[in-house]
User: Fold this.
Amino acid sequence: MAHSTQPPTALLFSGQGSQYVGMGHSLYQSSQPARVIFDRADDLLGYKLSALCFEGPEELLRQTRYTQPALFVHEAAILAALGNPSAHAVAGHSLGEYTALYAAGAFDFDSALRLVALRGELMFTAGIEQPGAMAAVIGLDDATVEEICATATGTVVAANYNAPGQVVISGDRDAVQALLPRFKEAGARMVTELPVSGAFHSPLMAAARARLEEAILHTPMQPPRVAVYMNVTGTAQREIDTIRRLLIEQLTAPVRWTAILRAMYADGIRRFVEIGPRNVLQGLVKRTLGSDVEIAGIDTEEDLRNRHHLVTVE
Assistant:
């Protein structure tokens, strides 16, 4: 699918936590295709998502029910401004998996946005009904983090395997907070509670599963044009029934991001381009794969001007 003169390239799509007030504004002003995406989203959602992205307020943009559609639309707008680029492979972190599937042609825009908006609403509600917490643990190996989680008095699980020595845990608020000193005692360099509204990628999201599963099963999908490396398995998938099942499981299962990056590298990918706000995924690529790969990101209109040559348009 990608042009032969380019090194094997993967597009990576950012997830929740990377959003900021002002994202997408320069693209909206400079790119007609990006404007079409934002305007269509406003019409489809029935509220001014564009204004929320461009102007805030931040406390609303941080709410899961708004964050998820905002990130999806911003990333879709970047793709549109780039001319819907091709790649050898795609992956997205948590929510970003939906944008990755959209980029690979598995969803159309309207179907994907409806699904993302529902996912955000369901996860927001689940977070209110079963308050949870998440925390980043830096400097311990995966097995040690898992062993400490297993000693919790409530539900605490490893939720994001982001990079070697970087794991996010998720679960009951009190149980998570009670474990934080244990990670420090075990030698963690840093333990930081995250500003999230629920225990994502944990059993506490189970209340959202039935409605999301129904929506995923009834959303029209086509086989992706390129391999999509899925969060739940860390492996490349192309078969629609498998992709649907893994999207459903992703709600309560960990994101195996380290495994995704290593699998992409093993499959020959040598250039990683993050599509989305800030540069979180670029840092994870560097931490996981080192200096043997090319890493870049596209977020703003300036990035678009400077880095559009890194992707191929069919």
